[in-house]
From TrEMBL:
This is Cation/H+ exchanger transmembrane domain-containing protein. GO terms for biological process: proton transmembrane transport; sodium ion transport. It holds the Pfam family Na_H_Exchanger. The lineage of its organism: Eukaryota, Fungi, Dikarya, Basidiomycota, Agaricomycotina. Keywords: Antiport, Ion transport, Membrane, Sodium, Sodium transport, Transmembrane, Transmembrane helix, Transport.
């Protein structure tokens, strides 16, 4: 006898819960975006209300499914962040991003040892708390970089690139720390060997994938994509156009996630470098296209000049004997006009990787995947147990320390040495403290990665956090995830594009 899942019609109650949940996710996201410039806060709130922490309307099997579906949304958010970035900026700002990431990792871990006298943590437990708070929420960082959130596109700027690259590095290190904590929580005697193996494997795979992808993109993918863009048949075919480019991105996206995950590093890292590779191909194609358009414009101008010269020659004939090819006697003659539809306009409208993603995937990511992801964060928060007096004040103090640990990352933008050309160009603008404040606040939110690491530390066979310690850590994660986007929204409303002053545009 074969096996299959028995199809049954959902009940009216289930349909009402799911439909109202999805609608309210978007409604509260819109409200919190307009009031607080932080769309994700409203969606997290709906997750708390509908999920296990409060009403419990979402069944446990639904919550598990939505966690997986939301993580797919997070992967797409990270892929879009890489696709929207400038590849050249990523390479040139790599040292700065590394310094920002190290500051955002080491300082929160160091400040977490204040918990030893503050809340009677042991040294190992303080390290576990610091590991959870050393991460940066990639989903939140990309949410605050979204043009719909800030009103302009920061993703290809130097400021946005430095922020996103540092957040990705934080995520990779958090993946390593979660592996370390998981091994420390095991009772087997092989823990130390496993720690060394896992850490070495993750570091090696992370560096190896980045190194391998550079020549593959440069010498294999770039020529193939340029050859594809040079032909027109696929653009008009039913199997081609945007659909074909989305299919190619899907194959590359899934392949890099699988390679990163099975090899031993974070799938989010695989999604990011896949997006960066697609950004590199898009930049190369745009450069090639702009050259072709410039040549086409020069040819058009030459053709106009030739036609005008011919007209001047025709007009030199005597007026009493008009030439048969003169303008008045040639109804078929149509002078060239820049307003007519030319091949240059067709090339301009050709689909690209970025335009295909925006057309096909951005709507479903904005209204379905991203809200589900932030809602899944909400119902993973232990909301009711948080309200213990001895936990609340310690959690607030710890959250303040963790905010300071990430805000310090922005100081690098003030003291980072700049080239002579850049310094001369911005000599009158002063230090880039607005961009420093923006970057520091954008790094504050912990979100999904912090919750993951704290739950690993709490649920291992040999717990690395007691119940009160787990709740204190969660207070730090929750308050940072609220304060970070709110601060970013206020800074953007107050200073606008001026946050990129100091040569960080």
């Amino acid at each position: 006898m074969w096996s299959s899942f028995t199809y049954h019609e959902p009940s009216i109650v289930q349909l009402l819960i799911l439909s109202s949940w999805i609608y309210l996710l978007n409604l509260f996201g819109w409200i919190s975006q307009h009031l607080l410039s932080a769309q994700l806060l409203g969606q997290i709130l709906i997750g708390i209300i509908y999920g296990t922490p409060l009403a419990g309307w979402l069944e446990e099997s639904w919550e598990e499914a939505f966690v997986a579906l939301g993580y797919v949304g997070l992967l797409l958010i990270v892929f879009e962040g890489g696709l929207s970035s400038s590849f050249s900026n990523v390479i040139s700002l790599l040292p700065l991003s590394l310094c920002i990431a190290l500051t955002g990792i080491l300082l929160p871990i160091g400040l977490s040892f204040i918990l030893i006298p503050l809340a009677s943590f042991s040294t190992l437990h303080a390290f576990a708390a610091g590991a959870a708070l050393s991460s940066t929420s990639l989903g939140t960082s990309l949410s605050v970089l979204n043009p719909a959130s800030v009103g302009f596109d920061l993703r290809q700027s130097k400021l946005g690139t430095a922020l996103l690259s540092a957040a990705v590095m934080d995520d990779v290190v958090a993946f390593v720390l979660s592996s370390i904590l998981n091994n420390l929580g095991e009772t087997s005697s092989e823990g130390n060997t496993s720690i060394g193996t896992n850490v070495g494997r993750t570091i090696g795979v992370t560096i190896g994938l980045g190194i391998v992808l550079i020549p593959v993109s440069r010498f294999l993918l770039k020529p193939l994509y340029a050859r594809l863009q040079s032909t027109d048949r696929w653009k008009e075919a039913t199997w081609g156009g945007d659909s074909m480019l989305v299919g190619l991105m899907a194959v590359f996206f899934i392949g890099m996630i699988a390679a990163a995950g099975f090899a031993g590093t974070s799938p989010l890292y695989g999604a990011y470098i896949a997006g960066l590779a697609c950004a590199y191909l898009s930049d190369a194609a745009d450069t090639h296209s702009s050259v072709k358009k410039r040549k086409g414009s020069e040819e058009d101008i030459t053709r106009v000049e030739s036609q005008e010269l011919g007209l001047r020659r025709l007009n030199t004939f005597p007026s009493h004997s008009p030439h048969p090819l003169s303008r008045a006697h040639s109804p078929q003659f149509v002078p060239f006009s820049f307003g007519t539809h030319t091949s240059t306009d067709v090339e301009k409208e050709s689909p690209t990787l970025r335009s295909s993603f925006e057309r096909f995937l951005t709507p479903i990511l904005t209204y379905v995947f991203a809200p589900i992801f932030f809602s899944s964060i909400g119902y993973c928060i232990p909301f009711v147990p948080l309200w213990k007096g001895r936990v609340i004040w310690r959690g607030i103090i710890y959250a303040i320390l963790m905010c300071i640990g990430k805000l310090a990352c922005g100081l690098w933008l003030i003291f980072w040495p700049r080239s002579l050309e850049t310094a001369n160009a911005i000599s009158g603008s002063g230090p880039s403290w607005k961009g420093a404040a923006f970057l520091g606040c954008a790094m504050v939110a912990r979100g999904e990665i912090g919750l993951l690491i704290s739950q690993i530390a709490y649920n291992t066979p040999k717990p690395l956090l007691t119940e009160d310690e787990f709740l204190i850590v969660n207070w730090g994660i929750i308050l940072c995830t609220i304060v970070g986007p709110l601060s970013v929204g206020w800074i953007v409303r107050r200073f606008g594009k001026n946050i990129m002053d100091g040569g960080w545009e």
